[in-house]
From TrEMBL:
Signal sequence, renumbered to the chain: none
Gene3D superfamilies documented for this protein: Metalloproteases ('zincins'), catalytic domain
YgjP-like metallopeptidase domain segment(s): 40-234
Cross-referenced InterPro entries: UTP_pyrophosphatase-like, YgjP-like_metallopeptidase
CDD domains per record: M48_yhfN_like
Pfam families registered for this protein in UniProt: YgjP-like
UniProt-recorded name of the protein: Zinc metallopeptidase
PANTHER family: UNCHARACTERIZED PROTEIN YGJP, UTP PYROPHOSPHATASE
Length: 242
């Protein structure tokens, strides 16, 4: 039997009950089977096609998984855009975003209504960029403070702290003592950020997830289990911001 060896297109279209979605195709010579995933940052599913896979088989596979795709898209947390008039979490509390009406100045937090207000200077179209910088700066402040406190308790030195927008993990620790964290932790309640800081500092003591590591982690953050449950339940809401 002659198989279809035509080059794969970049994507194929799948018709769902109420919408159409574009499914991106990526051939991977090392893959053993077709793998479908839905990235956090996109509503476009990605199908990994193994060596020898064909377009016809890819289309049939995606069609069979249409129910799964529809359920996952329907269960997604709606995106929270960083625009005037919308709400966004900050340190675990809902904040209203307001344009300051002036071009210069810094982002300010005002407490004079039912919800705190993030007052952002500049043109309305600049609000997302300025708020993102504000969140990253505040995340760095909070994380540097939490890391210093925990590192002091275990007598370890931190080489550097970087703030990123990671999707697969909230923090990481390299063997050279460099710690990396997601800026989105500043959107969560402070005790959640504190747990992630403690978790990565504990890796400065044990670069694994052994019982010894978890003992250090629990010593630094007794609320570890509660924080893990919170991130599992609400992490998608943090990733939906912006």
């Amino acid at each position: 039997m002659i198989r279809d060896r035509k080059p794969l297109p970049d994507s194929i279209t799948l018709a769902l009950a109420e919408r159409q979605v574009s499914v991106r195709l990526r051939r991977n010579a090392r893959a053993k089977k077709y793998i479908l995933r839905l990235p956090l940052e996109s509503d476009s599913p990605v199908l990994t096609v193994p060596k020898g896979g064909t377009l016809a088989t890819a289309q049939k596979f995606v069609q069979k998984q249409s129910g799964w795709i529809e359920e996952r898209l329907a269960s997604r947390t709606p995106r929270a855009d960083l625009v005037p008039g919308s709400h966004v979490p900050f340190r675990g509390q809902r904040h209203f975003i307001e344009s300051a009406g002036r071009l210069r100045g810094l982002v300010e937090v005002r407490h004079d209504g039912p919800d705190p207000v993030l007052v952002v200077p500049g043109e309305p179209q600049a609000v997302p960029r300025k708020l993102l910088k504000f969140f990253k700066d505040e995340a760095r402040k909070d994380l540097e403070c939490a890391v210093a406190r925990h590192a002091g308790r275990v007598d370890r030195k931190v080489a550097a702290i970087s703030i990123r927008d990671t999707r697969s993990r909230w923090g990481s620790c390299a063997s050279n003592g460099r710690l990396s964290f997601s800026w989105r932790l500043v959107l969560a309640p402070p005790e959640i950020l504190d747990y992630v800081a403690a978790h990565e500092v504990a890796h400065l003591v044990h670069m694994d997830h052994s019982e010894r590591f978890w003992q250090v982690c629990f010593d630094l953050a007794p609320h570890t289990r509660q924080a893990q449950k919170w991130l599992k339940a609400h992490g998608a809401q943090l990733h939906a911001v912006g």
